[in-house]
Amino acid sequence: MPESTLQIQIKTLPHQPGVYQYFDIDERLIYVGKAKDIKKRVSSYFNKHHDYGKTRVLVKNIASIKHIVVETENDALLLENNLIKKYKPKYNVLLKDDKSYPWICIKKERFPRVFSTRRVIKDGSEYFGPYTSMKTVKTLLGLIKGLYQLRTCNYDLSEAKIEAGKYKVCLEYHLGNCKGACEGYESEEAYAANITAIREILKGNFKDSLQQFRIQMRQYAEAMQFEDAQKIKEKLEVLENYQAKSTIVNPKISNVDVFSIVSDETYAYVNFLQLSYGSIIRSHTLELKKKLQESDVDLLELAITEIRQRFNSNSKEIYVPFKVNLGTELKITVPKLGDKKSILDLSIRNAKYFRMDKLKQVKIVDPDRHANRIMAQMKADLRLSEEPRHIECFDNSNIQGTNPVAACVVFKNGKPSKKDYRHFNIKTVEGPDDFASMEEVVYRRYKRLLDEDEPLPQLIIIDGGKGQLSSSLKSLDVLGLRGKIAIIGIAKRLEELFYPDDPIPLYLDKKSETLKIIQQLRNEAHRFGIEHHRNRRSKGALTTELENIPGVGEQTIIDLMKQFKTVKRIANAKLDELEAVVGVSRANKVYNYYHKE
């Protein structure tokens, strides 16, 4: 039975923190959830029986899934809150009320108060957060209160009113929690210095404050006040795990649309993040099929117009990865660093994951279609007469001229065919000569395929550029295969591809799938060749010395190495230890070789 669209969507979800959205058959959003691992969390809805009736009904109504990838679990929690407040999905109950996550406010006033609030008011005050745990807020405010004596009253402490003696100090002053700014006992400069220090704590820079807490904890412990010491320890743990910043909610960024683009040869994917009063309230990715090799700039301009019309966006500013021309009414910002760049990076991240999900889905639904598309693309990019269904890539490996070897790796339909990989020990070439070595292995490879009537590849790739390509062509000439198999050479920089009798190299787009396949072939050939080279060199280093001992053969060496593991241990072994492994006669030969004196 073929898999449903929903099952395929679940299979291709990423193992990343983020938010998942369930839609019904009418494309209505019915549930929003957060997850540390989106794929695991969503899969759990469909892999087990749910005792709770509401969950069973929810699962039955899910027709499609969308997700938004974020950096941290904390960001996922905040984004979930934004989306539920905005769209009020049918099956979300807990967060539908108007209660929001708390902030810490430094009030814009003379002798500013510092307090927690759930409402952000645009009056010039500074807001830090939001915090996903009220425990963190209380701990931070407790820390601040313990370190700095701040006022808690809401009086208007203007200079004129203080001088007129309008206020009297309250109980907080007598308890030592306030320095009495209301009666002029504390200067505005000293108070402002404390506020500057508190601002650093709220930004996450509270190293000095933590040190003071640790001292306080030790003092309680030394005084045998263990309950108080434990309370300080719990506060320290909360603060050490505290993250000051969130990409998802930022009061400095108001109503803005964020767009990014990721593209390949045939498709472009444009992600749209909509921010309202500093909170992300929408993420949507649009897939565009390329028709005439349009540039990313053209496609992004087209997509921005389409998406803003579709979602009735009236934002006057947009963030984009590069300059676009959208008229004079919109403010275009290309962020380079800071909070704005973080938002743009999040958009790019989601565009990339959307593209990856689409490619995975195509491979599941129609694996041949994916291979056919890549083969057709490679044929066009490399100017071949037929699709390169069978590709072979050669690489030489020798280090300082020792143990020269070569490797041949084989790709079929764009994927490695490891059973067809072959190693070659260079036999006819003395010393390090890459050109002659390449000539030898190419000849040996295709001589054998011809003798055994095995199928020949449609494309041969030679790692090494013009020189190795010329040497390989000599072998194809001798075998009568020149012109029957396409052959190209790769220069070291990878972007240059050389063809026989053509001095001008071909340069491929760095984002093209053709170049990625060629890079994969070359890297695989290099890895396979180096692995064989190391094995030969290692085996040679281990056995050469033992092979010099008269009367000691291969089986004796194998038995000794199995027992002692290294040549050094064999050399230092006692005679009776050697006799126990290989007998008296051969043990004497080995022992005497290493103890000639």
Automatic annotation (TrEMBL):
First-listed, main subcellular location of the protein, grouped into a coarse class: cytoplasm
UniProt KW DNA repair keyword: yes
SMART domains: GIYc
Domain UvrC family homology region profile intervals: 262-476
Keyword Cytoplasm: yes
All copies of domain GIY-YIG, residue ranges: 15-93
PROSITE patterns attached to this UniProt entry: GIY_YIG (PS50164), UVRC (PS50165)
Keyword entries, A-Z: Cytoplasm, DNA damage, DNA excision, DNA repair, Excision nuclease, SOS response
Gene3D superfamilies with a match to the protein in the record: 5' to 3' exonuclease, C-terminal subdomain (1.10.150.20), GIY-YIG endonuclease (3.40.1440.10), UvrC, RNAse H endonuclease domain (3.30.420.340)
Localization per Swiss-Prot or TrEMBL: Cytoplasm
Homology family: Belongs to the UvrC family.
Job description of the protein: The UvrABC repair system catalyzes the recognition and processing of DNA lesions. UvrC both incises the 5' and 3' sides of the lesion. The N-terminal half is responsible for the 3' incision and the C-terminal half is responsible for the 5' incision.
Cross-referenced PANTHER family: UVRABC SYSTEM PROTEIN C, UVRC/OXIDOREDUCTASE
SUBUNIT field: Interacts with UvrB in an incision complex.
Protein name: UvrABC system protein C
